[in-house]
Description:
This protein is mostly beta strands. It contains 1 helix and 7 strands; from the N terminus they run ββαβββββ. The model has no long low-confidence stretch (mean pLDDT 90).
Amino acid sequence: MPSHGPENVSSTEVNSSTFEITWAALPERVAHGVINMFQVRLVLKENCTSAQSELYLRFNTTTTIMVLSGLLSICAKYEVSVRGLTVVGPGPYSRPIVLQTFGE
């Protein structure tokens, strides 16, 4: 089980509601085993266009990149964090990064 979350988590805005999230692979010294997959957590923090509704989603991937498309509302703020999983279990999430979408 990893001892800490991935580092260098970053985002690139593709368009107003699509972001590409990337992160560094976990080195062996902190992975403590083979990383079978990564889990990306998306949490809605603020939404200025409608009543506040809670959104908490998790996505699994075997790569160090994920495109979030068709999921993000316009004019909203999200937190995204990533963790690695081995056969023993999941490690802690990375520090969250903030995604901000704006109106078109």
